[in-house]
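Customer escalation, tier 2.

The customer says the design service returned an amino acid string that "doesn't look like it belongs to this structure." They asked us to rerun it and document both sides in this ticket. The original structure tokens are below, unchanged.
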């Protein structure tokens, strides 16, 4: 077999070559293995290793490029935040969430059952889900009294939430 043909080796031939390398290693135990290894098999192994290394390097290059882009975007966002500190944050919320917040502002606080009744939801789960979403956005605060969970509009004095519908 010539060297040019070794580039088109089947998987079985490569496995056999690898097996012969491992057998030669175990027989010689730190002695020179080059006497027992077929040079074509060794070239095929090295070629496969080279291809793997090249594909790994390409993947790493793409990752580094993406990381650099993300770092640049993060830097821009940080710089933009410093400029916009004087502006009030704007929360874009659906109409249903606006109604929930208005209802809670009227009453001072509300439970999922209260929201279910006032907005005519079929079940308490829908109201509870919306309330938890508003809580996770930081718009509402929640507290538990017994088995009931009460929600109230966030009392952060420095924050004004402007509501828009989608």
């Amino acid at each position: 077999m010539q060297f040019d043909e070794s580039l088109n080796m089947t998987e079985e031939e490569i496995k056999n070559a690898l097996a012969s390398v491992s057998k030669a290693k175990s027989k010689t135990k730190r002695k020179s293995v080059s006497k027992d290894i077929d040079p074509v098999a060794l070239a095929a192994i090295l070629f496969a290793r080279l291809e793997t290394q090249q594909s790994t390097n390409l993947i790493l290059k793409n990752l580094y490029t993406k990381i650099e882009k993300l770092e640049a975007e993060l830097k821009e966002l940080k710089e933009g935040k410093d400029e916009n500190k004087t502006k009030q944050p704007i929360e874009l919320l659906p109409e249903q969430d606006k109604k929930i917040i208005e209802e809670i502002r009227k009453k001072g606080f509300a439970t999922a059952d209260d929201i279910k009744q006032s907005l005519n939801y079929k079940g308490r789960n829908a109201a509870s889900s919306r309330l938890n979403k508003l809580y996770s956005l930081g718009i509402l605060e929640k507290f538990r009294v017994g088995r009931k969970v009460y929600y109230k509009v966030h009392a952060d004095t420095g924050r004004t939430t402007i509501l828009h519908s989608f």
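Tier 2 assessment: The sequence is consistent with the input. The chain has a mean pLDDT of 76. The beta strands are 90-92, 140-145, 148-153, 162-164. Sent an explanation to the customer and offered a walkthrough call.
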